[in-house]
Structure to design on (334 residues):
């Protein structure tokens, strides 16, 4: 089980299935020498396991976090958000569906607040504008080996380079990439399959996915190399859902701890619910431009919708495994 980088700085294709060292190099730029002084890890079980015996226990998670003073930290305004998927072998800050799902969430709130209906050209243009102006090193979306195999089979091209396909294949691919069977992010797949439950317009979710691919294929766009398209390999083996929180002093600095979903025992879903609030605020202000009341209304709506969507995906993914909150903080004695 490993991660393959499908599109990163205009290089690497799906069939190569190798980890691109450039991803690690660029990611360090968003981590740098950031640090938040903490000395305590508090693990709380929010939801008990049901009819499963191989779940991750509190001591497993505490052991996995280790000495909090040695944690790596990322700046939320510079680092990308990965998916919560436990198959990632990197240390991550994460939200359901990663960057792309949050962008779609922002578009949804924008539509509702401004009483507009976006089309594909506008959606793709907005993504290009955001990528051109963002301070983040990369814009992330993930698929899975199984979903990618479905996609290449449906396209009739097993050796497809999804980062730079033939021009004659692009129209077909823009339809195929929105088929739930070909979507490797469970959260985004659920958004497509259950739009009403996720309070998301299905066509808007599809437009977001198409926009991602259109930007990735547009080699004349200066920001195309900020696209980070990851293939997650292997089967799901997550044995817990872990929400990561930090002390207020860390939040005030815009810092979040990087946590690997892979433990010595089993993998886990990792989610940073506090950190993503700052990302949502950034997206809201970008879309609302100078209209602060609209931006604030969007932030509220995004957080409300995001909470609903998180609960929906977690309920489907957990399959009886427990939910924990990990609070990484400075002890009261300090």
């Amino acid at each position: 089980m490993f991660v393959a980088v499908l599109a990163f700085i205009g290089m690497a294709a799906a069939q190569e299935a190798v980890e691109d060292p450039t991803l690690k190099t660029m990611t360090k730029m968003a981590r740098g020498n950031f640090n938040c002084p903490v000395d305590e890890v508090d693990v709380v079980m929010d939801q008990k396991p049901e009819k499963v015996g191989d779940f991750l226990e509190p001591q497993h998670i505490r052991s996995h976090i280790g000495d909090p003073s040695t944690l790596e930290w990322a700046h939320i305004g510079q680092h990308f958000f990965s998916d919560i998927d436990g198959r990632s072998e990197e240390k991550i800050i994460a939200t359901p569906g990663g960057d792309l799902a949050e962008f779609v969430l922002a578009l949804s709130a924008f539509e509702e607040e401004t009483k507009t209906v976006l089309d594909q050209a506008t959606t793709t243009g907005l993504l290009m504008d955001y990528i051109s102006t963002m301070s983040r090193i990369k814009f992330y979306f993930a698929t899975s080996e199984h979903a990618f195999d479905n996609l290449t089979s449906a396209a009739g091209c097993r050796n497809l380079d999804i980062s730079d396909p033939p021009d004659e294949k692009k129209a077909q691919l823009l339809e195929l990439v929105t088929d739930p069977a070909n979507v490797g992010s469970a959260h985004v797949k659920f958004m497509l399959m259950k739009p009403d439950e996720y309070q998301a317009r299905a066509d808007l979710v599809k437009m977001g996915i198409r926009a991602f691919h259109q930007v990735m294929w547009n080699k004349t766009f200066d920001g195309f190399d900020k696209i980070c398209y990851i293939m997650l390999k292997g089967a799901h083996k997550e044995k817990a859902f872990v929400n990561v929180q930090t002390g207020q002093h860390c939040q005030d600095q815009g810092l979040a701890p990087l946590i690997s979903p892979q433990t010595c025992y089993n993998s886990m879903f990792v989610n940073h619910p506090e950190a993503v609030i700052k990302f949502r605020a950034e997206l809201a202000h970008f879309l609302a431009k100078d209209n602060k009341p609209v931006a604030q209304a969007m932030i509220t709506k995004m957080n409300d919708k995001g909470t609903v969507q998180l609960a929906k995906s977690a309920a489907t993914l957990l399959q009886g495994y427990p939910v924990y909150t990990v609070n990484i903080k400075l002890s009261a004695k300090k």
